[in-house]
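User: I'm new to structure prediction. If I give you an amino acid sequence, what do you actually give back? Let's try with this one:
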Amino acid sequence: MDKAILTCALTGVLTNPKQHPVPVTPEQMASQALEAFNAGASIMHVHVRMQEEGMGHMPSWDPDVARAVVEAIRRACPGVIINLTTGVIGPDISGPLACIRSVRPEIAACNAGSLNYLKIRNDGQWAWPPMVFDNPVAKVQRFLDVMEECGVHPEFECFDVGIVRSVGMFLKNGMLKPALGRAEYNLVMGVASGMPCDADLLALLPRWMAADSLWQATLIGREDIWPVHQRAAELGGMLRSGLEDTFYLPGGQRARGNGDLITALAACAHQAGRAVASPAEARVMLGLC
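Assistant: Good question. You get back a string of structure tokens that encode the predicted 3D arrangement of the chain. For your 289 residues, that looks like this:
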């Protein structure tokens, strides 16, 4: 099998840094990225937080802040590949587009379909007011147009099986231009109203992907996600973890930071008989060069 490309999801969105060890400032992001880079991560998935005092739990779409964060990561990790988030609710995507144009990441997330974003408590009450993470085709196309303009490779985020199948329609329609590289799927499993984190389901999903595509699994949860990471490694997928997705290591202990999680992820690759790709090798595999 191909070498395994490891992605570190450094911080995510909304997690409160006063409660969890998530990085916020450019310096913190670079420090956490370096630990993950040294553990084998070639790609850093980047969310940007507000930098004002007491606001580090909130996302920022300030292109200057995004550029400061990404430049700090690139200085700390020579050759690293940047994967920039773009997820936003509603039709106004000016913030994510400004960040793409400012940062010029090698990769950017492209959420490929809509989802009722729900979570329910044990008492039957909603954990938050039900909302729709809306990603209609016209919105996807606007993102792809700017990614093409900036030479950015899209990573299609798929929260459900129907979204996986929709990516094939995008390709057939010509929405993904050849210059943007091979089709890449990110199978997001563990969101309560999306695909469950299930190894049997994971094994079925590649049959609905485009030929010659790459895929990875984003697994959200606690220590129960690690057998599914192992299955992803055995099936030939790329691997992703980080403080955006979990705080827990395979044995149930809490991770001290992103480096611990990427070390555990690299162990999954090795147990599947796969070496870990360098950033240069990952660029070739993804068609970035």
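You can read the tokens as a compact description of the fold. Here is one thing that stands out. Strands lie at 6-9, 43-46, 81-84, 107-111, 115-117, 131-133, 153-158, 184-189, 214-219, 238-241.
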